[in-house]
Design a protein that fits this description.
Blueprint lengths: L14 H27 L9 H16 L3 H6 L25 E12 L2 E10 L2 E11 L5 E4 L3 E5 L6 E4 L2 E4 L7 E5 L2 E3 L9 E3 L5 E3 L10 E5 L4 E3 L4 H16 L19 E3 L2 E4 L5 E4 L5 E6 L12 E4 L6 E6 L5 E6 L6 E7 L4 E7 L3 H4 L9
Parallel strand pairs: 5-12
Antiparallel strand pairs: 1-2, 2-3, 3-4, 5-8, 6-7, 9-11, 10-13, 13-17, 14-15, 16-19, 17-18, 19-20, 21-22
């Protein structure tokens, strides 16, 4: 053995070094176990959280509605199925959120992946109700409600506005079907407006089950009840009637249009069975012009659409006269009825001011062919 050769015992690793390997591998094993445990105990943000959080979302949503906090309620609704058109959201406001209900309980029914289904029980002023609500886990790590809004469609009405609880929204008469989304709740449609219109009382609509139609959205159709224009608002109708009647009386045509009186040109005048002739011109007159005494709307029968008030006046049975010179030179005067139903009369109001809009019926010629008695 030379001085440069290592000693035999120097070739072996020190006992401490040899014993160190089991310690090192043990540390690695512990680290792996802890890492796996961390994955199990702390899910990634894009994985669903506990179902209880879905229940908490439903409870928070209905608490916001009970507090009439529309902004918070909207923040708890997922974009999936949420209306993006501003006019569709017109009634998602505090004024349209009604009273008369409260959430009694919310319980988890089941969780299916990123979806949770929560059963809610309510007390309302018309009895107990229940509903199932779908809650979805979104990418931000929150549970959000989907398909929670109810869709309401308005039938044609002589009231050119939609009244939902304390909210009033004007409507465009040129649009056939007006549709809005509403929060879950209890709703009164077409309330009476003091000094404007008096509505027939109705039971409130309970919209607390978003799956009542089996398609995820509660779709109801709302038509107006029977209503009467308040006496304070009749002056607005009187003003329109005066203008229309004055124009009709000034006409020289025997078929002034659109007017509440007319004589059909093809209907010849006769006396004692003898035809005297006809004319296409004449002079209209009334002893006194009508005073509007009322304007009413009767709720129509099923499948019948009517969208006009019926104007009531103080006129007698045949208050209008038509004087004509017939083809043979004879002058005759006919007695004619007054039929204001020729006009479609509607009322527009924002809850304070009132305006009246009239237009002739599309089938005016069919509605009244003649109001005059052609038999002398």
């Amino acid at each position: 053995m030379t001085d440069t050769e290592p000693a035999d015992d120097a070739v072996d690793e020190p006992p401490s070094r040899r014993r160190g390997r089991p310690v090192l591998w043990g540390s690695v094993l512990i680290a792996v176990v802890l890492a796996v445990g961390a994955v199990v105990l702390w899910p990634e943000p894009d994985e669903p959280g506990p179902g209880e959080e879905a229940v908490a979302t439903v409870e928070a949503f209905f608490t916001a509605l009970e507090d009439k906090d529309a902004e918070t309620a909207v923040s708890l609704i997922d974009e999936l199925g949420f209306p993006h058109e501003e006019e569709d959201r017109a009634f998602l406001v505090p004024e349209a959120i009604g009273d008369g209900w409260e959430l009694d309980s919310a319980t988890l029914d089941r969780v299916e992946g990123s979806w949770a289904y929560v059963r809610a029980e309510f007390s309302t002023n018309v009895g107990d109700r229940s509903g199932e609500y779908t809650v979805k886990w979104d990418a931000s790590g929150d549970w959000k409600l989907i398909n929670v809004l109810s869709l309401v469609q308005m039938q044609p009405s002589p009231a050119l506005y939609m009244h939902v609880n304390d909210a009033i929204m004007p409507v465009d008469v040129s649009v056939d079907n007006h549709r809005w989304y509403l929060f879950p709740g209890v709703y009164e449609f077409y309330r009476s407006i003091p000094g404007v219109v008096e509505m027939e009382d109705r039971e409130p609509e309970v919209l607390l089950d978003p799956f009542s139609d089996g398609e995820g959205i509660d779709h109801i159709v709302v038509g107006p009840p029977s209503m009467t224009v308040a006496p304070e608002s009749l002056d607005a109708i009187q003003e329109v009637v005066d203008e229309q009647v004055s124009e009709c009386l000034a006409s020289t045509s025997v078929e002034p249009a659109p007017c509440p009186f007319r004589h059909a040109i093809h209907d010849p005048v006769s006396a004692d069975g003898e035809v005297l002739g006809t004319s296409d011109e004449g002079v209209w007159s009334m002893e006194h012009e009508p005073t509007v005494t009322g304007a009413v709307y009767e709720e129509p029968e099923a499948d019948v659409v009517e969208d006009s008030f019926l104007i009531e006046t103080d006129l007698p049975e045949n208050p209008v006269s038509l004087t004509m010179e017939l083809e043979g030179g004879r002058t005759v005067t006919l007695e004619c009825a007054f039929q204001p139903g020729i006009w479609i009369t509607r009322l527009r109001s924002d809850g304070e001011t009132v305006t009246v809009e009239t237009e002739p019926r599309a089938n005016a010629d069919d509605f009244i062919s003649s109001t005059c008695d052609a038999e002398l």
